[in-house]
């Protein structure tokens, strides 16, 4: 069954194909994958908890771990730490449990890889400088809460540390203190300035190779406490270069929403695991692709994943930090939230022409899981923002 829609600037009708994906997928075994999830809102105000949590259940059903309370959930752009605490607690209460995949967890705890949560320093005021012990305390408070919820810890890139550090040794001091307190190995978080301009020069240098040296020094000192590092610099070559320098057993989680196709597939020298906001937008085709990869079916992987890349590149186009709008837009089109609304009215930060193109590319990627509903809602948006476009 197909559904069609007339879009502004396009000759003829756009046919939205039936997606054809399975209703659910098991967690992949050949890659560790997290989808960074967004937050739905009630008309730009408070969190729509029902919709927000339903979306996480959708991700778990497709085999993804959920990366919770990250920048995709508007940390630093509308989601305060007190609300993030509640989000983490609610997600932990719903996350899959059972016989774990890692011996560090007891039976009945959260399943290994099901939930990893951001611990940062957003109790502190942006733009201010702080003594390093104050930054450590802010990080430690959040890390302790994440650990108490039974989730894995993602040590988020910190605006406070970026503003306060005098050089690489300050980063090593802060992260070293935190890793000593960690109960289990954590994921480090390296977010490039395209995602947050306040993080320019993170790890003490604007030179990527010099910053890598700092990260590798930290891992050399505290490697048993580091599960991996999420890298989001939108440069596949740099990611591969760092990945090849990591010690055995330390994962490189790609955060490259442009180049994930090849980075996850890998090459003779290895592959990246993934922690991607893009997965929240393309969960069904990405899950099918990862299932094919588990079977050793590279052609099947490419067939499912490659059409998602143009969509992801559009969602993450500059200004990249507004990519959350595309994630929420697709969640609304696919019926996971009743309103296209984000905290602080962030949904208004992408123009209608951008959203129209997102719809087109989502159809091409078969990322519209309910074509009839998607067309109905797209027509609603067009009538509101562009004018009558019904067919």
Helix-strand layout with pairing:
Layout lengths: L2 E3 L8 E3 L16 E4 L12 H13 L3 E4 L12 H14 L20 E5 L12 H17 L3 E4 L3 H6 L3 H14 L4 E6 L16 H15 L3 E7 L3 H10 L5 E4 L5 H6 L7 E4 L1 H4 L1 H12 L3 H8 L2 H8 L8 H10 L18 H13 L6 H15 L6
Parallel strand pairs: 3-4, 3-10, 4-5, 5-6, 6-7, 7-8, 8-9, 9-10
Antiparallel strand pairs: 1-2
Written description of the protein model:
It is a single chain. This protein is of the alpha/beta class and 391 residues long. It has one domain: Aldolase class I (TIM Barrel, Alpha-Beta Barrel). 42% of the residues lie in helices and 11% in strands. It has 15 helices and 10 strands. The strands form 2 sheets. It has an 8-stranded parallel barrel, surrounded by 4 helices. It has a two-stranded antiparallel ribbon with strand order 1-2. Helix 3 links the parallel strand 5 and strand 6. It is globular and about 60 Å long. The mean pLDDT is 94.
């Amino acid at each position: 069954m197909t559904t069609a829609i007339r879009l502004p600037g396009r000759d003829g009708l756009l046919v939205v194909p039936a997606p054809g994906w399975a209703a659910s997928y098991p967690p992949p075994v050949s890659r560790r994958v997290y989808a960074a999830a967004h937050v739905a809102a009630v008309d730009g105000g408070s969190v729509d908890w029902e919709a927000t949590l339903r979306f996480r259940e959708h991700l778990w059903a497709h085999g993804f771990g959920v990366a919770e309370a990250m920048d995709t959930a508007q940390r630093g752009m509308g989601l305060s730490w007190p609300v993030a605490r509640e989000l983490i607690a609610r997600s932990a209460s719903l996350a899959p449990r059972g016989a774990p995949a890692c011996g560090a967890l007891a039976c009945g705890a959260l399943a290994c890889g099901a939930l990893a949560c951001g611990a940062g320093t957003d109790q502190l005021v942006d733009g201010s400088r702080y003594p390093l012990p104050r930054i450590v305390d802010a990080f430690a408070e959040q890390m302790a809460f994440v650990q108490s919820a039974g989730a894995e810890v993602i040590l988020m890139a910190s605006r406070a540390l970026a503003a306060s550090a005098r050089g690489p040794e300050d980063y090593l001091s802060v992260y070293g203190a935190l890793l000593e307190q960690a109960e289990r190995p954590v994921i480090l978080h390296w977010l490039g300035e395209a995602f947050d301009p306040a993080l320019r020069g993170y790890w003490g240098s604007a030179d990527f190779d010099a910053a890598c040296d700092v990260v590798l020094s930290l891992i050399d000192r505290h490697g048993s406490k580091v599960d991996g590092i999420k890298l989001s610099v939108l440069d596949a070559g740099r990611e591969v270069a760092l990945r090849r320098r990591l010690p055995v057993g330390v994962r490189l989680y790609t955060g490259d929403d442009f180049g994930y196709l090849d980075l996850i597939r890998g090459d003779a020298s290895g592959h990246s695991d993934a922690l991607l906001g893009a997965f929240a937008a393309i969960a069904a085709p990405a899950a099918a692709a990862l299932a094919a990869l588990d079977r050793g079916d590279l052609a099947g992987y490419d067939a499912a994943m490659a059409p998602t890349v143009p969509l992801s590149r559009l969602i993450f186009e500059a200004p990249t930090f507004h990519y959350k709008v595309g994630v929420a837009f697709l969640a609304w089109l696919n019926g996971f939230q009743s309103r296209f609304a984000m905290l602080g009215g962030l949904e208004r930060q992408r123009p209608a022409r951008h959203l129209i193109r997102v719809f087109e590319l989502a159809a091409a990627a078969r990322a519209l899981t309910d074509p009839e509903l998607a067309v109905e809602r797209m027509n609603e948006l067009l009538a509101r923002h562009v004018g009558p476009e019904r067919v």
